[in-house]
Amino acid sequence: MSYIMVDIESDGPIPGDFSMVCFGAVLVDGELDKTFYGKLKPISGKYNPDALAVSGFTREETMDFEDPEKVMSTFEEWIKTHSKGRPIFISDNNGFDWMFICWYFHHFLGRNPFGYSSRRLSDLYCGLERDTFAQWKHLRKTEHTHHPVDDARGNAEVLLYLKKEMGLKIALK
After folding, report:
1. Residue 39 lies in a domain
2. From 82, 106, 144, 146, active-site residue
3. 144 has a pLDDT exceeding 90
C-alpha cells in the first residue's frame, strides 16, 4: 500500500455546487519528491469570494485552468505510476479534502482509484498521543502556504515523523 497525502483548495464548502480550484498530492516515502499539482476550471457559476481568496487565485484566473476531467484522469495515471499496491488517501482534514477528490473522480471518471475510504492525519497523531486535543501542526517542516503541494508535503513530513519518532506502525511503499 502507498500513502498519498492530498490537500485541496476550493471556492466553496461542497463539491458540485462549488468547485475545487486546485489540489496537490505527495507520495509519502523517504524523499517526498513525487508530487502532483492540478488546477481545475470551475464547474459551477457559484463561488464564495472568501473561500476562493484562500487559494490565491482570482475567479478570472480560474477560468483559464484545465478541464477537470483531464486533470482527474492525469491524477489517476500519476497514482497508478507512483503507487505500489492499493493507494491510500490521507490528508489533514479528510472530511473536506476527500469529499472533493472523491466527488470529482466519480463525477468525471466514474471511479475513484482510492476506493471508498480515507485516513486523517490528525486522528493518527491524537491516537498516538492518547489525547483527542493534541496539536501536531508544529511538526511540519514545510511552511503551510495554502499552495496544496506545500501543504501536502508538510503533512507528509508529519506522517513520516509519526512513523520514525513516535513508532506508528505503518508500511510506506
Report:
1. no
2. 146
3. yes
